[in-house]
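User: I'm new to structure prediction. If I give you an amino acid sequence, what do you actually give back? Let's try with this one:
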Amino acid sequence: MTETYFLDKIAKVIIENYSGKLAETTIVLPNKRAKIFLIEALKKQITSTVISPKIISIEDFIQDIASVRSIDSIELLFEFYEVYLSVTEKQNQQSFELFANWAKTLLQDFNEIDRYLLDPSHVLSYLKDIEDIKKWGIEVENKTQLLENYIDFWKLLPNYYESLYTHLLNKQIGYQGLIYREAVNNINHFTNSVPGKHFVFAGFNALNASEEKIIQHLIASDQAKIYWDIDRVFLNDPYHDAGLFVRRFKQDWKHYKANDFEWIFDDFSQSKNIQVIGTPKTIGQAKITGSIIEEIITNNPGSSLDKVAVVLGDENLLIPLLYALPSTVGALNITMGYSSKNNPTQILIAKLFKMHTNALSRNGASYVFYYKDVLDILTHPLVEPFANVKELVKKINQNNYTFITHSKIIELNENPSDLFLLLFQKWDSGSVAVLNNISTLLLVIKENLSNDNEEDKIAKTFVFAIFKVINKLINYYSQHGHIDKIETLYAIYKQVIDVAEVSFEGEPLNGLQIMGVLESRVLDFDTVIVTSMNEGKFPAGKSMNSFIPYDVKRELGLPTFKEKDAIYTFHFYHLLQRAKNIYLLYNTESEGLDAGERSRFITQLEVEKKPKHNLTQEIYNAVLPETAYQPMVIPKSEAVMTRLKEIATTGFSPSALTSYIRNPIQFYFQKILRIREVEEVEENIALNTLGTIIHETLKALYEPFIGKFISESDIANCFKLLDAEVLKQFKVVYKEGEIKKGRNLLAFEVAKRNVSNFLKVELDSIKDGDAIKILAIEETFERTLTHPSLPFPVLIKGNVDRIEQRNGILRIIDYKTGKVEKANVVLKNWDGLTADIKNDKIIQVLAYAFMYENNAKGLPIEAGIISFKNLKSGFLPFGFKEEKDVNMIINNEIMHNYLEQIVLLLNEILDIAIPFEEKIL
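Assistant: Good question. You get back a string of structure tokens that encode the predicted 3D arrangement of the chain. For your 921 residues, that looks like this:
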């Protein structure tokens, strides 16, 4: 058979050269993932049962040599803080939060120094000398304490390094660089301890100084061989970054002075179809990937997708991609984990931290929660079905609780469940207690989830992932008791969550392969789809997260962004090396969160195009519909007509009629379907609430005067009752809402001012000799409208704010807290009255006049509006303008013309043939 793939060729060499000693052979690969593929390749080469060689990743191999356990970044940070406290004078010691800000960067530098086997005291004192030179010109007397501390920090770096190194080594634990340095120190002992063993290194590209030294030592002692996977195009071109490292190894390693360099391939120049596709945004790339895979399945029915790889330049594309894949994909292998950041359990814990840290920062003694934080927890899908809190949520919404004390929330929930008590247990007993509380909480959530439901099983997986993280933190905090602030705990929790993942289950060798860039090392595929081919994503771009300046890194031989780009270049070109069909997707948007210029790799492919490469470019744009939104049209069914007859019997209110004019769909939802707005906490008083408070205050003040003429002394008495009455109405309408501060206090003062100004206008009228008799306040009136063209009689029913008799004329008044001008209540032409929402005020006041007409006892009627934002205009009566004259008295002719228009509107509402059609405003 011909070995087209690198791992097949390695497998062939292993079987041919090491068949008698497979058990003593160790194959070292760049990553763990390639192991499964190599075992599969070995299976193809053998016909009988054999003991497999040991296959191991380079990191595990180095760890074996060093005999030091690797620790994660958070544990390392805790250990470093212990060391920091032990070597720093007490007065100069920083809190853990401040320490963590610079320690993470410093640890990265320690790691690089060790991996590249540099002398730490030389590098770190070099940094101190650079800082000294920067401050060279400052006179001694001008040096501040801050500056002294700054210089001292740099002086202490060698001490920090030595102390940390010794501390970790004593515990037999370490970060990657330390393990590499110890492995180099231990290499002679290691080679002597494994005399019969043989090592094969395969598929490497960028090696650090430690790896180089170890591999060269093993090769020199004839215990190892190394096989490179490099194409001659990259190796022979002195400027091609994909061969940057391997060119240097070929030139510098002693072994290659007398031995052949293995292997150099000629695959990249072979025939390839390369399709470059640009599309706006990330989702577009996911959709296109889905359609490419669908096309592959259609063109190759029955064939497996295991030689097809989707490589995500941006791992955030994973979920959109999974949604975009066609259902015909079948088997699927995802080598990336699903980030714990976005899973439901993590979101709950993050909200829990937010609620409690906010409560502690407000006032630790009374422990006050903010309602949004509380409702976020109570309505979370892992809490709401199991915590029995429906009534509590209702109470918070109905009573406008904005800030709720801990004792109040416990009091409001009469029968608290265990889950509820765990969620709202105070976080005032230290970090370990908080973590234990969260751990218990997660166990309770786990018990609530079923084993039979597929969704619950997935939820349990997420719960377990977070449970492991919390238990890890309990372990850290138990050992480091002096780091005990909740804010610090939250910051560390967020860091741990950033790297925590939930693994996907799948058969690694079957079906479509979805992976990140690093997982693709050593593997070869026939078809490769690479997404996010934009600068900043692929390659990742510059990131200077280091205290060591660029020029110093260059001088000392440490990797800079140039080397990091070269690593990305190798990964990219290795993906293409043996592939036959390549799809490169990029975001055409140059601005935005996930945008950037088109990747330089695409430009490089165009400029250095090989004769056998068929390179095409396409831009895909989403099809824009001609109409952005199709208005809703709902035909009238028999059930709708039954409901309309019911409304005609119980009463159409003037506001129902104007709601239909404004938008028939709004009328349909509110009146036919009876859908109400969801009740929510009103944190700031809404305009309609303010209007209700003013209406209710005036009702309370004027009710004693119904049936009487009001005097100056009556109004004077109203002024005395004003403040108390407005406050009382606020309490009734706004319930437990906060009105003593902020915007609500302003609204409270506005309500008082509006009522006070109204009373002043009333008082001035009485002083001017107006005789005002109150006939009705906030009273409901109704009257049946019968007309030959109506299918059945319709009841018109509504609530009138105030009816008075003023100087022998009946006035029907509607209060408006918004601004109304005189022009809003003057009509010039009856045609089209009900077609324009601008006439809503006229329709309302004339409806009130129609309802009260039979009670008028022959007195002339005016109907109009008093606008609190336009009180200087006083009462704004409806007027019909004929030429220059405006008739304000509602006579039989006006009422007849009005009713004709209302009948037209009612006929439209009640006509089964006319559907409810949405108006786009």
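You can read the tokens as a compact description of the fold. Here is one thing that stands out. The longest strand covers residues 772-785.
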